[in-house]
Amino acid sequence: MITRDNLLENKPLVIAGPCSASSREELLKTAYEVKKMGAQVFRAGLWKARTCPDSFQGVGDKGLKWLMEIKEKTGLLVTVEIQDSQQVDLVRDVSDILWVGSRNMQNFELLKKIGEDPRPVILKRGFISTIKEWLGAATYMGLDKVILCERGVRTGADAMRFTLDLNAMLVAKHDYGVPVIVDPSHTAGRRDMVGHLACAGIAAGADGIIVETSVDPEVEQVDRDQTISTEDFGILMNRIYKIYST
Ligand code: PEP
Ligand code: MN
Questions:
Q1: 71: pLDDT confidence band, cut at 50, 70 and 90?
Q2: In a domain, 25, yes or no
Q3: CA-proximal residue: ligand 1, atom 9 (nearest)
Q4: In 18-127, which ranges are E strands?
């Protein structure tokens, strides 16, 4: 089993993949590409928490075998967003790292269930949550296995989809001693800004990034406008490594 310490041995931790799995072929192609460019972990949502019920809800359980195949063929680690307590067990063989999304940050029954599981977990910040609420949620699962993820908050600043709160990232890291990665994709909401925000996060001391990436962003059914191509992901990787090592 991978531990949080293992994951952070080779920083920056880079997690990439589409917002939502759509087909086996697209997933495999993207996984091979991001692996080649240096990602350590593959991300893909199977059950999507969508604002409106008529939006695409994800491919569901059938995506589990695609992700299993990716693990076996590419050697990438896999992370899947968990929406409810049953899914913690359902993803046992597939998801090396559990992941709680922004909308579930305070789903306390889910947090307690994950607290009983030894796997490391990514906890995305609720987009109107205070730092205290974020750390409180992390404590339900165990601060020693959590990687926090700053994904942008809703403020009066409306230039982009959300506002990347690097202040909170710094306080979580320095005052609470918990590793933090940044999500430039949901913060930006547009792919031309993703690289800039990822670099800003790394320059400020983030432990890594989680970035929505696809071999063909235009076919993505969820978060298409903020998904970067695998070519742009490769360019971003070079920039990030340069910033991290200076
Ligand atoms: C996602 O990563 O695709 C996602 C839904 O993110 P968040 O929970 O931060 O909105
Ligand atoms: Mn998304």
A1: very high
A2: yes
A3: 102
A4: 41-43, 77-81, 97-100, 121-124
- Which atom number of ligand 1 is nearest to the Cα of residue 149? 9
> Could you tell me if 17 and 71 are in contact, meaning their C-beta atoms sit under 8 angstroms apart?
no
Query: What is the tally of structural domains in the chain?
Result: 1
pTM: 0.98
Residue 9 resides in a domain: no
Report the distance separating Cα 160 and Cα 106, nearest Å: 25
Asked whether the predicted pLDDT for residue 246 surpasses 90, the reply is: no
Per-residue model confidence as pLDDT tens digits over 8-42: 999 999 999 999 999 999 999 999 999 999 999 99
The position carrying tokens 């089993």 is 1
Measured between its terminal Cα atoms, the distance across the chain in Å is 32
Ligand 1 in contact with 102 (CB < 6 A)?
yes
Separation of CA 50 and ligand 1 centre (Å)? 10
Q: Where are any strands of DSSP class E within 23-170?
A: 41-43, 77-81, 97-100, 121-124, 146-150
- Do residues 199 and 169 touch, judged by C-beta distance below 8 A? no
Query: Tell me, what CATH number does 104's domain have?
Result: 3.20.20.70
